[in-house]
Design goal:
Elements lengths: L12 H12 L6 E2 L5 H13 L2 E2 L17 E6 L2 E6 L12 E7 L5 E6 L9 E5 L8 E6 L3 E4 L5 H14 L18 H4 L1 E6 L2 E6 H7 L3
Length: about 220
């Protein structure tokens, strides 16, 4: 149940407090090897079984303002997976905090579990070495006030392949009628600008508009 007087929106003082912690070096990245104990698996299962499970599109109407700071997000860079809680920073106090985050793979096994400190010295984010043969990864987060939230499933192979294809088909610099990425063949006639001059007047138009103006 939502507790009165609690909000996920940071106060004016909290960002300054966290900034001081960062500059002092008291907040460090939480890198954890992807080893999970039996207790971790049990803790994740109990939270999912005992508490309502919400997502980016499924949550109580009164929680609409809580979604930006509760939906976990997973991304992968190389062999390291990063998990963050929400697009907005979640508060971390004894009264209101993200208690833990975990990740399940394509077999529904818990491959990562992290409990967070609530004394203001740790942000609700972590990174871990990606296990081999990871096909689909779904992040979860438990807020002591707003239940358990599941984030969108991340597909490492698909994401990596898509990024490689985009990089391979994205040519640097400006495009012209003869220089453009693979797959843009049919776009040149409607994207290349055309400049015409009549006396002292110049007319600049997109090719398709120019063609329409000069059709016989």
């Amino acid at each position: 149940m939502k507790r009165a007087g609690l909000s996920c929106t940071s106060t004016m003082r909290r960002p300054m407090f966290l900034l001081v912690l960062l500059t002092k070096g008291w907040l460090v990245p939480n890198h954890v090897e992807a080893t999970v104990s039996v207790d971790d698996v049990r803790a994740a299962a109990e939270k999912e079984a005992e508490l309502p499970l919400y997502t980016n599109v499924y949550f109580p109407p009164e929680y609409s303002s809580e979604r930006p700071s509760h939906v976990p997000v997973l991304r992968v860079v190389g062999s390291v997976a990063f998990i963050t809680i929400g697009s907005l920073m979640h508060v971390m106090t004894e009264e209101h905090h993200v208690a833990a985050a975990w990740v399940r793979d394509q077999t529904n096994d818990v491959i990562f579990y992290k409990s967070f400190k609530t004394d203001g010295t740790e942000l609700p984010s972590a990174n871990f070495t990606l296990p081999e043969n990871s096909v689909a990864l779904t992040p979860y987060a438990h807020c002591n006030t707003h239940s358990v939230w599941a984030g969108p499933t991340y597909f490492p192979v698909w994401e990596g392949t898509a990024a490689s294809l985009v990089a391979a088909n994205t040519r640097p610099g400006l495009y012209t009628a003869t220089y453009f990425p693979i797959g843009f063949d049919g776009l040149a006639p409607t994207h290349v600008p055309v400049l015409t001059v009549s006396g002292m007047t110049g007319i600049l138009a997109v090719a398709s508009i120019y063609q329409l103006m000069h059709e016989p």
